[in-house]
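Dear Dr. H.,

I hope your travels went smoothly. While you were away I took the liberty of generating a structure for the chain from your last submission, since the lab meeting agenda had it listed for discussion. I wanted you to have the full record in hand beforehand rather than looking at slides cold. The sequence, exactly as received, is reproduced here:
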Amino acid sequence: MTDPDSAPDSALGPAPGPETAPGSAPAVRRWAPPQPFGPHDLRRNLRVLQRGPYDPACRAVGGAVWRATRTPLGPATLCVAPDACAGEVVAEAWGPGAEWVLDRLPALLGADDDPSAFVPRHRIVAEAHRRHPGLRLVRTGLVLESLIPSILEQKVTTDEAYRAWRLLLRRYGEPAPGPADRLPERMHVMPGPRTWALIPSWEWHRAGVDNKRSSTILRAVARARRMEEAARMDPAAAVTRLTAIPGIGPWTAAETLQRTNGAADAVTVGDLHLPGIVVYALTGARDGDDARMLELLAPYAGQRHRATRLILATGRTPPRRAPRFPRGDIARL
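The corresponding predicted structure, in token form, is as follows:
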């Protein structure tokens, strides 16, 4: 049997809709951030949207970041790059949703974020805050495109989750709109809710997704409109809305709202690695758990997610003492 992860797109199913012809003119917007940040800041801030180095929906190429996304107006491809000389960000967009993504460019790049509300309480956090003044929490305003890959990441390794996301988008998504001579290779827009709902059980299995995660995704897309409303809610109401779906817990809700709402306090609880990293960075202890992490983050109430982002930016992690989490492969069972 052909390995779907290495097969060409033509072997993975039909590609609905041709790409825009080479040379097609994009819609363009230039935006000056309140505090200019460089290419590295741009990539770091948007990196949270990329699910692995081969994500069909998000790529960093040189100083630019490319996103293929499904907006309420239809598919769109967005290319964002800094213009250091002008102190601006230049965005180009293609597809039916081009104007939608350009209208929301400032929010995507962190214009709604308020880093001035953050007060470091630990020396290592203060140093990270000083070293990364361009850190901003992004806000996509699109729930399903962050919720679905977060569900895929439940209780599996990141490699497994990234592979599932990649295979499902290449097989059931559509080619990203835009000029074929400029787009990064094999970019795809995430499927719409109806397409997700029609994926047969054996294709979930082929992508390595167990019944629990696929069933959770199917329940979420069946209530797609209700899910998308969470992007316009306050954090507590948004968590309540998402976790009303069986299979979506605090971990998945936090991972989603960090990206869709720019939720500065959406700390990830239940993660395999984060508590150990936070506790080790702040205390040097190697026995971190959620309770101890939350205790240490209490002084950052309202800004706990930002605090963890800064801690992760230090690169300070506990020495590895146990083997990696074993990778399962249900597609071979």
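Two observations you may find useful: Residues 158-172 form the longest helix (15 residues). The chain has 15 helices and seven strands.

With kind regards,
E. W.
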